[in-house]
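Example record for the data management plan.
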Amino acid sequence: MAIPGNAATIAALGTAQTLAWASTYYLPAMLAAPMARDLGVSTPTVFAAFSLALVVSAVVGPWSGRAIDRHGGRPVLMGTSLLFALGLAALGTSQGVWSLFAAWALIGLAMGSGLYEAAFSALVRLYGQGSRSAITGITLIAGFASTVGWPLSTLLEAQIGWRGACFAWAGLHLVLGLPLNAALPRAGVAQQPHQTPPTKVDGKAPSANRVKVTSTLLAFVFAVTWFISTAMATHLPALLQASGASLAVAVGVGALIGPAQVAGRLLEFGFLRHVHPLLSARLAAMGHPLGVAALLIAGPVVAPLFAVLHGAGNGILTIAKGTLPLVLFGPQGYGMRQGWLMLPARVAQAMAPFLFGMALVQWGSGALWLSAGLGALALLALMVLPHARTTEGQVKST
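Corresponding structural encoding:
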């Protein structure tokens, strides 16, 4: 269960995360085209700059996590609010390719220290093994980032242009994001390694080799699932049309994914919080391959089922990215470990639109075999992960 009294922390951090995601990750979808027209570059160039931001965020992640391990999430996330504002303001003033890429690189610094991984690390720094419900809570709130971000960016661009939209988002980080992150509790003195009992696997402390294997498998799972998630977010309408669906059906089906993600997180918050996070992750990893199988067998008529299975699984796996490292390795050094585990995922995320786009051009709906195959490999990796048992009572307390 969530620790009593942390509802305000979850609400503040969840709202700040909604702002962070809406103003960065979901920004190019609405502003890339007008940005490209004004700057005299192609739309793919704008997305290439965004990909650079994702790569920068991958590199920054481990160091941001280490800072949170040492000092807590409050000062790091407050600094990130300032970085978001600075990066978005720089984007709003960019005049060409070089300033465009420089602005997105600055935003990437903020993304690497201000999105989910940093928020999860901040919660673990505060609540230790009792962080599972809190992690689920902030993903429930921030799950509406696209629902808020896309319409607001569109409205701002229509009223004050894309540059004005960037300045408005920057201002929101100063007047809303910064106070919300400042409202987070101060973390206590960082625990020393001997103060946290080592996580046990099958009743005994894991060897260094076993820790390395577990870390490699987790990093692979996270990279694959983020690749699939980003590929679907970028190419789903075109993919469904290649499968035989009309444009109207493709857009309608795509609209189901957001609610399905939230539904999956509600399921995790309710029923699945009573089971081990590894079992929850395994069930979630089945979603995309099963949805693809249904779509390839029955055609567009079951496209809504595909969207629900993919969306719900993706929603739960977002939580698993925070809970699995906690239950498998414990809270000590969580932030830096989380940064390293997510580094390949961020790189895969940056490559996904381009690589899956090439597959879609070459194979049409057959590109689904690629995503389903990768999803099946992620499920296999989760199946061979050891079922961790932390010190007595810790898994129950999550």
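Summary line stored alongside the record: Confidence is low (pLDDT under 50) at residues 1-5, 191-199, 389-398.
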